[in-house]
């Protein structure tokens, strides 16, 4: 009773505790791991009782993050500014509760940051003690087998459910794993098995490599020797196999090919035999792995027997006989079936040489000799003839730990006097286990032991070994997990040293038990029915290797002290190499690698990577960066310093005053794989001093605006605080610029076209949307411009124009038609012309206007030749003078400024967070202002240094989507219906100047730098370019140059240049520009019976409302002049072109844009006819037909058939008419793919859908609804030509070559697997026929 009462009290107490815990307020903790770039986006969430202590918080975070407690810190996270090092870490040993430590309970989120401790990254927790391991073993590994998604796995099978012991380190198992290169698990399994075979390993060690005779890189035995030495002596957890695969002649692509482990075993043994010729190891493979068997056929009437001896390296055992519903239950059962003879009777009778007639006979195999190392392959991969796919048989098949092979040896007790052996080619071919069943490519004994009487066999060969000497001991099980499509291999191997079983699963080696081996039998626990394999485990044994139990032959592994001298030298060499690698890795682990930027006085912005040991001081790191940036002789070392820099936001985070002797590991927050900030090597002039940068400051680029001259000066950099008011900020700017704070207007550019006037005095910078890096425009004057609304003010207009001006590089034609004199005349005519329809008003002082040229000017300019760059400069000056004096134009000052392409991106976010990266200006000046005070401050970043690298990156990643051929649906006219220029209403900024040497990326060609408002239309832009090109805008074309140097013509005259950005390139080409309703068309000739049926002819222009006949009338003279084709208009047709496919035939009366859809950069086929056009109506159908002759294995030429309807009967009648094939014997099929629908003559007879059961052509499976379809036809009574194997192979080669040249696929069969090969000469030889 007392016990019951005590239990009640205990339960009640626990219940109260649970109730209290449930009622207690909880603190929601959100932890960001900022120790590396890989984890910075991860969040850990803990909802803990408010009474939880800080030490318990550290324990919970360590457990959830997988770190060792005490190797990391937790600090309050500032979600607004995220300023690092802004708060001290929480005490990990404190017993203060969360509520006492400042955590807010009740559902409020408490943000924490998981940080490094003492500059060292957190240690990852391991599930086992990893002391004594090499550094490479320090990895986060939980659970014995991580199969899904790991390299070498197909991912289509589930993880094995083995109850393996926990993964052990090398210090406990004593074994080293092998790294999986990608899908080389099959190779790793075989290599570990060979390494764990004492006889093979010892023999390999006894072989000595002669370096003077062979390259060690391509020597397979030497690389295997090196690998085995590392597996035996290395301190690593796992080692690479790349040197071994390189000796095979494999490249990196082979690592992604999974092969069969038994296939690899045969190929590798063959390669070793070739490499070991004429050495002591020449017969090693045969001595260890080769057995013998007898393939015989015995007559059941006279007892006559024909036989031969074959050799084998492995025995393939069938899992489930063909057509059977039940699999074999054990290896012994499968071995018995392997030697079970079959009776040849009925139609399969055997022709007996002695009886001279066909007789019943018995055919089978007998084992004569078993190898020392017996390899059994369980044939789990089969072919399902129902689904026509490869399958894997997962049926259960047991195998013993000790296998008695004495029941399967040949016991020849039938010694009838009639038993003889004779030469019989039939038996030789049929009974060759070497070629048919054993798949053994390794036998070098080509002789056939036939014609030898059995009685004459020597008595020594007839003596059988005692049963005790035919007992084999299992020591290796190679397991496959997965399906026939792919999977994973690993090996279970028993050590002959201690009898313990181990799992060698790539880099993981663990102890396993006999129960784990039994789990690889496969199958399920149920009965062995037909469908048992479908629901069985996909992890099962695939290859078994047994060793003969013979104390006289069973060897032990060579100990290290017993190694041959050459192996001892190799061990020492590999040990030194490993030590050197470890030292290098130690250096790498302690090396901080961070991006370094520098504004070089000569080379402008430079970028590199600074690699500095964590114990190096800031002073030493600065000296390293100084040399790396090649500043010696340019800037003194004491005029340089390293500062913390955010290149993405162009933000100088902080400087390190007084910390010159601090180790870099502490300054950078430890050694990390990547950092969330960069370093800038800042420079100053000797008469300047460095400005201190404090954490928490924001950087502001201040541009002073002069309304009188309408100029915007280069930026001056100031640093402010987010909690400063606008009034305080104006005072700061006044000190830096010398302007009056009382009359100062400050405009913040948050992002493109987002200009905000800061007019509330007490509002903070943070409230106004300031971030790390900002850009403002300031103006201080007493003009009346202050009185008008900001959006109507001159300041806003000036800033608006500044924000929309872009810089374009324009390449003029190499042979411009005008000289300087004619250009000047051209411009004077423009100015003096009062009758020109395109004359523009000249009273707008803010903008330049260039008139449209007259015809007279055009004719004069066409007589002239190209001018050089100096002439171009003169022309620009003349143009400027003629348009109102650009030399005095205040907008000239925009030439010194340049905007990044991010400024002109229409899709830019309006978030103030991104304002610092959205706009910037070019200037060669520093950020120091000499007039700002008695002491000059040096700030190592000017506007160019910040923007230059970003601009190039933005250009690389920018996707252009304007004026492509697919998007252009037409063109616009440059003139409206009244003949006035559409550009008249566009008074937008335009100014041109010659390219400088730095800008001229097109060397020795004439290039303009054009500053233009991107809101200008293409029509107005072309008008402004007229004086520089020398012809009217209708006589030249504008091509936009994209990043890959592809050019596309810009033809939409009413569209603006808004999609252009700074430094975009434009090419001007002479030629008639398209008028309204015109389309540029590419004309190709259709040659249906030529190897290349599509041939480009000319570029031409088609117009809206033009008929097809009119377009042919304009096209034919062009073809005659340019292509030397003299064609009759009644013997040519135009037809639709869709890639290479001919389509709809265009009739003469068809009208473009009414009957025929047409678009910019359109393509059309021109077809030359042998007779006048037969297509007269759209109801007709033009089909291209081709005859297939099975008796000759040839295809006839294409012939066009014109059908009046979509009737199948009419098609067959027309085909019968042109071929002479009787209607009842005619069969047809639609071609596949693109024109000309090529197909191999070896496949056409079976692969096409012949004689479809339809009555019309426009239904499934034909769907012939348009002109140009390809139809094959044949005579059903014509028998296919019978080809010999050689003829078929020769024809296959010819067809493959023909179809590859035409770009059509050779076969419709699925991709074939790549054969596994080991190249003895170091690599595959290139087939000349593949070129």
From TrEMBL:
<feature type="region of interest" description="Disordered">
    <location>
        <begin position="86"/>
        <end position="106"/>
    </location>
</feature>
<feature type="compositionally biased region" description="Polar residues">
    <location>
        <begin position="852"/>
        <end position="863"/>
    </location>
</feature>
<dbReference type="Pfam" id="PF19718">
    <property type="entry name" value="USP47_C"/>
</dbReference>
<dbReference type="GO" id="GO:0004843">
    <property type="term" value="F:cysteine-type deubiquitinase activity"/>
</dbReference>
<dbReference type="Pfam" id="PF25985">
    <property type="entry name" value="Ubiquitin_USP47_N"/>
</dbReference>
<dbReference type="InterPro" id="IPR028889">
    <property type="entry name" value="USP"/>
</dbReference>
<feature type="compositionally biased region" description="Polar residues">
    <location>
        <begin position="418"/>
        <end position="437"/>
    </location>
</feature>
<feature type="domain" description="USP">
    <location>
        <begin position="176"/>
        <end position="549"/>
    </location>
</feature>
<feature type="compositionally biased region" description="Basic and acidic residues">
    <location>
        <begin position="890"/>
        <end position="906"/>
    </location>
</feature>
<dbReference type="InterPro" id="IPR045578">
    <property type="entry name" value="USP47_C"/>
</dbReference>
<dbReference type="InterPro" id="IPR038765">
    <property type="entry name" value="Papain-like_cys_pep_sf"/>
</dbReference>
<dbReference type="InterPro" id="IPR000626">
    <property type="entry name" value="Ubiquitin-like_dom"/>
</dbReference>
<dbReference type="GO" id="GO:0005829">
    <property type="term" value="C:cytosol"/>
</dbReference>
<feature type="compositionally biased region" description="Acidic residues">
    <location>
        <begin position="963"/>
        <end position="976"/>
    </location>
</feature>
<dbReference type="GO" id="GO:0016579">
    <property type="term" value="P:protein deubiquitination"/>
</dbReference>
<dbReference type="InterPro" id="IPR018200">
    <property type="entry name" value="USP_CS"/>
</dbReference>
<feature type="compositionally biased region" description="Low complexity">
    <location>
        <begin position="827"/>
        <end position="844"/>
    </location>
</feature>
<feature type="region of interest" description="Disordered">
    <location>
        <begin position="827"/>
        <end position="863"/>
    </location>
</feature>
<dbReference type="InterPro" id="IPR050164">
    <property type="entry name" value="Peptidase_C19"/>
</dbReference>
<dbReference type="Pfam" id="PF14560">
    <property type="entry name" value="Ubiquitin_2"/>
</dbReference>
<feature type="compositionally biased region" description="Low complexity">
    <location>
        <begin position="909"/>
        <end position="925"/>
    </location>
</feature>
<dbReference type="Pfam" id="PF00443">
    <property type="entry name" value="UCH"/>
</dbReference>
<dbReference type="GO" id="GO:0005634">
    <property type="term" value="C:nucleus"/>
</dbReference>
<protein>
    <recommendedName>
        <fullName>Ubiquitin carboxyl-terminal hydrolase 47</fullName>
    </recommendedName>
</protein>
<dbReference type="InterPro" id="IPR029071">
    <property type="entry name" value="Ubiquitin-like_domsf"/>
</dbReference>
<feature type="region of interest" description="Disordered">
    <location>
        <begin position="409"/>
        <end position="437"/>
    </location>
</feature>
<dbReference type="InterPro" id="IPR001394">
    <property type="entry name" value="Peptidase_C19_UCH"/>
</dbReference>
<feature type="region of interest" description="Disordered">
    <location>
        <begin position="879"/>
        <end position="979"/>
    </location>
</feature>
């Amino acid at each position: 009773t007392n016990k019951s009462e005590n239990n009640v009290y205990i339960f009640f107490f626990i219940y109260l505790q649970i109730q209290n815990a449930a009622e207690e307020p909880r603190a929601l903790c959100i932890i960001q791991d900022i120790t590396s770039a890989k984890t910075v986006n991860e969040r850990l969430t803990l909802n803990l009782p408010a009474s939880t202590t800080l030490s318990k918080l550290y324990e919970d975070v360590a457990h959830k993050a997988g770190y060792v407690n005490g190797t990391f810190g937790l600090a309050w996270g500032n979600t607004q500014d995220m300023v690092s090092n802004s708060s001290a870490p929480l005490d990990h040993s404190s017993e203060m509760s969360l509520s006492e430590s400042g955590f807010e309970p009740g559902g409020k989120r408490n943000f924490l940051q998981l940080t490094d401790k003492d500059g060292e990254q957190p240690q990852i927790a391991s599930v086992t003690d990893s002391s004594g391991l090499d550094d490479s073993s320090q990895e986060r590994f939980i659970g014995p087998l991580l199969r899904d998604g790991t390299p070498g796995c197909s991912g289509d099978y589930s993880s094995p459910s083995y109850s393996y012991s926990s993964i052990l380190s090398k210090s406990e198992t004593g074994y080293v794993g092998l790294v999986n290169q990608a899908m080389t698990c099959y190779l790793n399994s075989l290599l570990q098995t060979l390494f764990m075979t004492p006889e093979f390993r010892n023999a390999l060690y006894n072989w000595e490599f002669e370096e003077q005779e062979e390259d060690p890189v391509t020597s397979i035995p030497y690389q295997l020797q090196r690998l085995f030495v590392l597996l035996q002596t290395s301190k690593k957890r796992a080692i690479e196999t790349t040197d071994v695969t390189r000796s095979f002649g494999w490249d990196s692509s082979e690592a992604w090919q999974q092969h069969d482990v038994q296939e690899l075993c045969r190929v590798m043994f063959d390669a070793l035999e070739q490499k070991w010729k004429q050495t002591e190891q020449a017969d090693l493979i045969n001595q260890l792995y080769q057995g013998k068997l007898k393939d015989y056929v015995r007559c059941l009437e006279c007892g006559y027997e024909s036989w031969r001896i074959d050799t084998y390296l492995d025995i393939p055992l069938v899992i489930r006989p063909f057509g059977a519903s039940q699999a074999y239950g054990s290896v012994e059962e499968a071995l018995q079936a392997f030697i079970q003879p079959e009776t040849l009777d009925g139609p399969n009778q055997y022709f007996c040489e002695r009886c001279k007639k066909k007789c019943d006979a018995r055919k089978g195999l007998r084992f004569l000799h078993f190898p020392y190392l017996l390899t059994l392959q369980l044939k789990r991969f089969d072919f399902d003839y129902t689904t026509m796919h490869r399958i894997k048989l997962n049926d259960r098949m047991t195998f013993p730990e000790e296998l008695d092979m004495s029941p399967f040896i040949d016991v020849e007790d039938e010694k009838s006097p009639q038993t003889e052996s004779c030469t019989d080619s039939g038996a030789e071919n049929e009974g060759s286990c070497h070629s048919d069943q054993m798949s053994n490519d390794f036998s070098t004994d080509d002789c056939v032991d036939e014609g030898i009487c059995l009685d004459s066999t020597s008595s020594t060969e007839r003596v059988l070994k005692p049963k005790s000497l035919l007992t084999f001991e299992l020591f290796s099980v190679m397991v496959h997990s997965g399906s026939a499509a792919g999977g994973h291999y690993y090996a279970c191997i028993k050590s002959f040293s201690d009898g313990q079983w181990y799992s060698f699963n790539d880099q993981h080696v663990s102890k396993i038990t006999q129960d784990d081996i039994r789990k690889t039998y496969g199958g399920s626990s149920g009965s062995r029915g037909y469908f048992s394999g479908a629901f069985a485990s996909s992890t099962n044994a695939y290859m078994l290797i047994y060793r003969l139990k013979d104390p006289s032959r069973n060897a032990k592994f060579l100990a290290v002290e017993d190694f041959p001298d050459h192996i001892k030298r190799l061990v020492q060499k590999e040990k030194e190499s490993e030590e050197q690698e470890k030292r290098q890795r130690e250096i790498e682990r302690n090396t901080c690698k961070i991006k370094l930027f520098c504004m070089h006085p000569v080379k402008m912005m430079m970028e590199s990577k600074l690699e500095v040991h964590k114990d190096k001081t800031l002073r030493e790191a600065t000296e390293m960066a100084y040399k790396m940036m090649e500043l010696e002789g340019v800037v003194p070392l004491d005029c340089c310093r390293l500062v913390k820099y955010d290149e993405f936001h162009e933000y100088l985070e902080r400087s390190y005053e007084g910390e010159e002797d601090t180790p870099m590991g502490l300054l950078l927050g430890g050694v990390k794989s990547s950092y969330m900030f960069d370093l800038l090597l800042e420079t100053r002039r000797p008469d300047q001093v460095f400005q201190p940068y404090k954490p928490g400051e924001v950087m502001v680029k201040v541009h002073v605006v002069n309304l009188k001259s309408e100029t915007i000066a280069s930026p001056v950099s100031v640093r402010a605080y987010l909690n400063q008011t606008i009034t305080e900020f104006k005072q700061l700017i006044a000190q830096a610029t010398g302007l009056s704070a009382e009359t100062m207007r400050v405009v913040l550019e948050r992002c493109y076209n987002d200009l905000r006037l800061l007019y509330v005095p007490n509002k903070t910078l943070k409230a106004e949307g300031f971030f790390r890096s900002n850009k403002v425009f300031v103006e201080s004057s007493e003009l009346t411009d202050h009185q008008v609304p900001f959006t109507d003010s001159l300041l806003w207009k000036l800033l608006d124009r500044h924000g929309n001006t872009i810089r374009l590089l324009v390449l003029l034609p190499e042979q411009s038609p005008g000289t300087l004199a004619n250009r000047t005349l051209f411009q004077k005519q423009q100015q003096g012309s009062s009758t020109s329809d395109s004359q523009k008003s000249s009273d707008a002082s803010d903008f330049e206007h260039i008139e449209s040229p007259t015809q007279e000017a055009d004719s004069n300019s066409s007589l002239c030749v190209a001018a050089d760059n100096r002439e171009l400069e003169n022309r620009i000056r003349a143009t400027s003078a003629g348009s109102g004096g650009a030399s005095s134009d205040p907008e000239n000052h925009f030439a010194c400024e340049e905007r990044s392409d991010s400024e002109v991106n229409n899709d830019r976010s309006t978030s103030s967070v991104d304002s610092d990266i959205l706009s910037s200006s070019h200037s060669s000046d520093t950020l120091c202002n000499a007039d700002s005070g008695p002491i000059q401050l040096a700030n190592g970043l000017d506007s160019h240094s910040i923007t230059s690298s970003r601009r190039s990156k933005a250009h690389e990643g920018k996707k252009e989507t304007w004026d492509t051929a697919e998007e252009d649906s037409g063109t616009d006219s440059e003139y409206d219906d009244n003949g006035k220029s559409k550009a008249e209403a566009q008074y937008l900024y335009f100014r041109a100047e010659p390219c400088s040497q730095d800008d001229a990326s097109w060397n020795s060609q004439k290039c303009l730098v054009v500053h233009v408002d991107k809101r200008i239309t293409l029509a107005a832009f072309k008008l402004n370019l007229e004086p520089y090109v020398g012809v009217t805008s209708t006589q030249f074309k504008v091509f936009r140059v994209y990043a890959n140097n592809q050019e596309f013509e810009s033809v939409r005259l009413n569209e603006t240049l808004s999609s252009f950005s700074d430094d975009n390139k434009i090419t001007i080409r002479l030629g008639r520009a398209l008028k309204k309703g015109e389309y540029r068309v590419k004309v190709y000739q259709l040659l249906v019976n030529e190897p290349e049926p599509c041939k480009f002819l000319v570029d031409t222009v088609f117009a809206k409302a033009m008929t097809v006949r009119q377009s042919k009338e304009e096209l034919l003279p062009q073809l005659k002049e340019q292509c030397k084709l003299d064609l009759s208009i009644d013997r040519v047709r135009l037809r639709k072109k869709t890639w290479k496919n001919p389509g709809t035939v265009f009739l003469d009366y068809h009208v473009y844009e009414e009957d025929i859809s047409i678009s910019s950069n359109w393509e059309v086929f021109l077809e030359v006819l042998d007779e006048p056009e037969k297509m007269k109506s759209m109801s007709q159908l033009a089909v291209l037909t081709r005859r297939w002759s099975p008796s000759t294995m040839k295809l006839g030429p294409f012939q066009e058939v014109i059908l009046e309807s979509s009737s199948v009967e009419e098609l067959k009648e027309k085909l019968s008419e042109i071929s002479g094939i009787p209607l009842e014997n005619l069969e047809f099929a639609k071609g596949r793919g693109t024109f000309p629908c090529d197909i191999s003559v070896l496949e056409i007879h079976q692969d096409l859908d012949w004689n479809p059961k339809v009555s019309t052509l426009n239904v499934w499976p034909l769907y012939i609804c348009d002109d140009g379809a390809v139809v094959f036809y044949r005579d059903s009574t014509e028998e296919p030509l019978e080809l010999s194997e050689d003829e078929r192979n020769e024809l296959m080669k010819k067809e493959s070559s023909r179809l590859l040249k035409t770009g059509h696929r050779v076969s419709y069969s699925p991709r074939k697997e790549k054969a596994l090969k080991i190249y003895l000469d170091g690599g595959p030889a290139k087939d000349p026929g593949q070129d």
